[in-house]
Amino acid sequence: MEYNLADLFESVVDVVPDREALVYLDHPGTGAERRLTYAGLDSAANRVAHHLLDSGVRPGEHLGLHLYNGVEYLQTVLACLKARIVPVNVNYRYVEEELVYLYRDADLAALVFDAEFEDRVAGALPRVPGLRHLLRVGAGTERVAGAVPFAAAEASGSPGRGFPARSGDDQFIIYTGGTTGMPKGVMWRQEDLFFAGLGGGAPTGEPVKAPQELAERVAAGGSGITFFPTPPLMHGTSTLTAFIGFNFGQRIVLHRKFVPEEVLRTIERERVTSVSLVGDAMLRPLIDALGGPLKGTDCSALFSVSSSGAIMSETVRRQFRELVPNALLLNNFGSSESGFNGTATEDSGPERGFRIRVNTRTRVVDPATHEPVAAGEVGRVAQCGHVPLGYYNDPAKTAETFFRRDGQRWVLLGDMATVDEDGVVTVLGRGSQCINTGGEKVYPEEVEQALKAHPDVYDALVAGVPDARWGNHVAAVVQLRAGAPRPSLADIQGHCRTRLAGYKVPRQLVITETIQRSPSGKADYRWAREVAGAAEQP
Known about the structure:
Rossmann fold, 14-stranded mixed β-sheet, GMP Synthetase, Chain A, domain 3, Luciferase, domain 3, alpha/beta
């Protein structure tokens, strides 16, 4: 057995077949739920895998997952891994033109889609001739000719295994981006993804030294941990969180969509121990519900709340701790291109910055020479060892981002950072979002943390707007708390000056009803720039 994700999953199934693996709770209010043991999930995935192979989808070909959260999502990912078909995530917010691009760029041979997206899929298909096999989840209008109902596909496949030998070289593709350009497919070898994205079977301990050791650890341990990835599975972090849970032989809970009140009810009912989310956009609504209509909800089993993709600000973390004092709050740092890099220190915040204790494979390097920078100098975060092979269908971007040094493969991330004498990395922000104002560099994330500390600010994004005098000025796009008085620009500036250098203080304030983010809570900076640019200039 190699470090192949399907092999590893099956090894866990064989030692804890009757343990509950997956709990799915449908859209709030329906009362529908599904519960699968490890043996049940294994059998369900086998059925879909055999259906795909029997339908002519070949090992090495690509299958898109255009789905909301559900059993079918993880079942299909596992089916792909078992059959050596490459799973590809599809952002369900994409409109028809974006879908045409992604379907074609990813060279999809097969697609599993939610019936809710049938119209968009039907519109895109005529321009994607290579996409030849389709499965529809849920009841649809059959606008997509030839689409096989998922239930029928599952019923047609054998529940047994009987698959050819697999390899650690089998691929897993994660599409990322789209807010600052067209999405890119990150190509991972499964062995590399196991160690970089899944912690080698033990994200908080010693990685396994041999594939068979994973099942041995599960057999020797017990149950009792429940992982609850609340963002969409279409974002790599949530799918990887589910696989971390499977690697521990523990239970995964899923909701179709993020509804704060229902998340809290599930935490209480299922005795959830670990929640993953994306920044303040998800944590703040949980705080509002806990302090309001769901006050008194039992969260005593909750051990950790972790965020990836956006920061849980100091102010919001403090508010949550007042309500759930025993939960550990973790700001994790990573990306689709690197997996997990490290976790923020407790003293991270507007005053000291976003400080990360990184793993031993992470460095801050000069982007031109790829040499490590001296303490205090600005460089870019890079990681070596278990890194992706590159971007699918994009050799030019691959050459810009991936390199070799000292006999190892490296990936150069877009995050600007410094490192101190103790090896603690301070992440300044994405270089692509950096605002150059009067010759000074301002990173939006730092200003956003300061803005969110204002008692009347519910959410905020910061963008650079062209300015005849400064080149660009810092603009704050702010969503206020319900019922809060409308602050003036001077009010906001006075608040920020106690936390930020003068050149970082916003010169423009735009009040908006709602901050636009992705379904997972990630910032949409393109939208923020458009809103600020269209508003009245200071």
